[in-house]
Amino acid sequence: MDHQASRRRFLRNSLALATVLGNGLPLGMSQVKADGFATLNHPFLANIMLNGGPDMRHLLMPAFSSVEGSYGREFWRARVSSQGGEDTVAALDARWNANYLPASSGGTQFGILKEADWLHEMWNAGKVAVICGVLNDTSRDHELATRMMEMGNRQANKFSFGSGWGGRLAQATNSNVVALTTSPRRFSFCPNPNAPQDLTRIDNRRLIPAANMREIALADASSDSDYSQTSDQLKRGLKHYYAQRRATVSRNSVYHQFFEHERKLRELGSVIDARLATVATPDAMNAWFQDGSEIGYDVALQTRNLYDALACNDLLDIRIASLDFNGWDTHDDQSTEFAANVKTLLGTNGALATLYNELGNVDLQTRANTVFLLGGEFGRQLASNGGGGTDHGEGLVSLLIGDSVQGGVYGTMFPEEELARFAEESAQVEGVNAIDHVFGRVAEWVMPGTKTQVFPNGADAPLETGLDLSGLFNA
Amino acid sequence: MTTSPLPRAESVLPRAARVLMAICVLHFAGLTFAATAGEPPTLPGLDVVGKSRWTPTAVRKVLRTFAFGGQASDAQIDAWAKMTPQAAIVEMLSFSEHNLKLSPPDKKLAKEALERRPQTLRALGNFWSSGSAANMIPADNRADYARANYDGVMLTWSLAARVRGGNPFRHRVGYWETNFHLAVNHNSGVSNYQLVRYYDDVMAALGRGDGYDAVITTAALSAAIAQHYDHRNNRFYDGECYCNEDFAREFHQLGFGVLGSGDTLYHERVSIKNTAAALTGMLFTSNEAPNDWEAENVVFGTDGHVPTAVPILHHSISGATAREKIRKLATHDIVHRESLANLPLMIVQNFADDNISATEAAALRTAWRSMAKKDLLRFLRAYAISTLYHSTTRVKQLTSLDRFMIAANRFADTNLEHYNDVPEMWRLYYEEEVIPFVPWHDVFGHQNGPETAASAELFRKNYRRATDANFGASAQDLNGRERLKDWRATMPKGDGYFVGATAEWLWERFVSDGLKNFGPLERAHVYALLGYGRDLAAVLHRNTADVAVTLAELKQGPGKAWLAKATNLRLPLENSDEDIRLRTNDRIGAAVDFIIATPFMLAEEGR
């Protein structure tokens, strides 16, 4: 690799970028490190949406107890079908011992599903915050709950449209949000900069769509093309067309977004290509794309994207990333499906463990500044159903993982009042801590003073009595 | 060769009698049509668009939205535009298996005669996978369409919605019903046999004119749904339901838009629990499926079914089997206040409008509520000719599938082009990863317009498709066969084939915006590709072709003069030299490539 040539190319591209993006992406060019993985100098939130409403109670089970009437006995009894055992002390005790790794917080004893052994390791290292009873939506409707969760707007309805809380956080921090999913999720839709608290308006200037960081550039003719081929003529023609037509299209036009795509891809493509040419994909990640990998393609691609986005964080000026993983709506056969998902994501050889370790290899400061936030659109019911799964509920658990996290349980993990409801029809984990507070605190960590900009409707939102979220992150 | 007696009669009947007979036939056809067309295509709340705004462009927009562009000829589109909207829309949108005005037969493939073959997925899959001499699918590809092939159903559906001699509107609605409304996922274990039966039964219900509650019931009771949500084995014994409540919830939420808002406790603890109980006692049997797990029939038994009436939505729902109970339940869901508010919006949002305002929502609800029997066809027709649809405020961002289907339908003039995948639909499946019956969001539906538009990745892939010269390099198709395109088959000639007229015709054919966005810059680029076979800069900036031609240049004297000159260039489509004809057709293809890469192919406005 000719690093000087690479550096020259990079600087040329960077200058070009700085010139053309003057009114677009605000880039911190002074922090640019020409080659290699750029150090992340500020807090960075990777928001990972687990689609379907993950049953975090299955991930984090209370310690089994043989004492009849105790929480540890009755909850396990209510979960017999999803645990795949019989309702006997011996059978459930065996499941507990075989399937869960012990953990505790204060006086609460619980277990972490053994497939999430990396999560357990991080818990023991004090780097996992378990936030309980998080309240998003009450309808138990996936579509509506997802909309509310991603918009950070508990007043949204089925037909609401508008910005997401990740996009508003980008606006509030004067940075950008990178969407690493195939299509940007609503979480990363940005507000109108002139009316950032109007949750219905969108302006995606701060959204960087990067479904594949290593294939981001638009098709362009090679520098030595003689343009005899129709394809090259089309490449040049369309490039010129977009460049000339863009200025004539109103920002309010539905077509404007496509001109923005073209601009971002063309301008970012060469710069990112140049940077990533100097950042090798770790072998452990490359292995995900080989036959026989247990990490699914979608998980693999997004996680590698996150690694690459972090490598380019200075170019992209990002503080927020959006990812998602499917398969958490476990109405049946939960013990099998959930374990497989958890292993992929939170196992020792899973996606996040690999990413975390590789960040440690390349840049400890970057790793220290990166926090993963995991959660779904809603929680599930207390008791499992007749099909070996769990049905939709309300209160969810959000997980924060990272070196900057002050590990522990926040909120009541297993409310004693649930004991009286295990046998009730459709009894659910209750949501008591509104997302406005929980994610608002996360926003404050990303940049102090941003909570009310990101969650403007949160003033009267509920919060469990006595719960203090100020200690979620290390000082 | 026809066996009809009419040609023989023609020779002996006097002209007056033939005219009289023709009038009778037309009259009879009209009566038949009226009898099957149902209620008039108007509804309170939806004002019919005025005649002055019912133009060929308006017709094209309707076809784009509701029929993947359709295959109607220009003459037919003009004819519809001359009719009243109320009369035209009845001809344009119907649930009959064949709509030969919307999808005229492929006269080049008389032997195939798709216009006379059943258009169910089962029938088409069987035909296209068969060794029949009438089957025009390349022999090597036929097995792909069999239900035994994993991709058989999605390929069959995709082709069914594009071939001439069918009814693309019917398949657009089928796509909504089975990939969005009550979506099932092939990748979640729903078999091809179940998918086909599901699709065909739902379309048959629509074709019969069943009320929408009955259509949803047909879907809800299918093997595909029971397989996907896994309630096929749910049983109720001794007061205990051994079941999940996944579909019990979605029957109300996804099927009808009933969330139980304002009645949450009852909805959760009574309605959903009892709907789960009502969905018990099913047993799968097979007609054609080789294995039990993929069986396509559902037998609704009493064994394992809740034996009593159950309260749901504050009604007592009786019935000996799941079928009886769900049928009854649907009649209550369809008139539930939440359904009346949500269902019409869910439909319109999927088909035509990404951002329904409160005023528009009120109008749609009024229209829906006014129908004693909820008639989807009547609702869609009334909406398609309404001022609401033909409004400047209506915006629809196209899905990848919309874009591919419209481009394919508007490009191909013979089914052979589809059979040889000249429109390169493979890119939709493998590059953009949009596969019918494998919805992106599982039961919550396939890729939608807003998420497609928001994706720079999908934009990039569409751009690459265009710059690969998908339509502009015609040497061979994917099967290695010579791929000759003759645009004369569809293009109006006038006094010849001219660049300007061709450019406008192409833009309107693919974009259908009345040339609203076909400004000087678009014209100049398309003219250069058509008239010179080069990109614009290579033509106007011959020695500095890396420098873009600006809009300002085109608005000044020399630029205007060049546009005027280029407009009148002739396209040698009728040249005696085959090579010249081939290259001219390729230039037109390149212009299509350019057009589909512009933003105006990725979204549309109501007017």
Description:
- The complex is a heterodimer of chains A (475) and B (607).
- Chain A has helices at 3-20, 56-59, 71-78, 80-83, 89-99, 117-124, 142-151, 165-172, 230-245, 256-276, 283-286, 297-311, 313-316, 334-346, 351-362, 364-369, 435-446, 451-454; strands at residues 44-50, 60-62, 100-105, 108-113, 128-135, 176-179, 207-209, 318-325, 370-375, 396-401, 408-410, 433-434.
- In chain A, strands 1, 5, 6, 7, 8, 9, 10, 11 and 12 form a 9-stranded mixed β-sheet that branches. In chain A, strands 2-4-3 form a 3-stranded antiparallel β-sheet.
- In chain A, helix 1 runs antiparallel to helix 10 and helix 12 (297-311) runs parallel beside helix 15.
- By secondary structure, chain A is an alpha/beta fold.
- Chain A has 18 helices and 12 strands.
- By secondary structure, chain B is mostly helical.
- Chain B has helices at residues 6-12, 15-37, 56-67, 74-82, 85-92, 121-128, 152-160, 168-181, 192-208, 212-220, 223-229, 246-256, 264-278, 322-333, 337-351, 358-370, 376-384, 400-411, 415-419, 426-431, 449-454, 456-467, 499-510, 520-532, 536-540, 551-555, 557-567, 578-596, and strands at 235-237, 240-242, 282-285, 297-300, 310-312, 315-317, 395-397, 603-605.
- In chain B, strands 1-2 form a two-stranded antiparallel ribbon. Chain B has a two-stranded antiparallel ribbon with strand order 3-4. A two-stranded antiparallel ribbon of chain B has the order 5-6.
- Chain B is globular and about 85 Å long.
- Mean pLDDT of chain B is 92; it is low at 1-37.
- At the A-B interface, helix 7, helix 9 and helix 10 of A face strand 2, helix 12, helix 13, helix 15 and helix 21 of B.
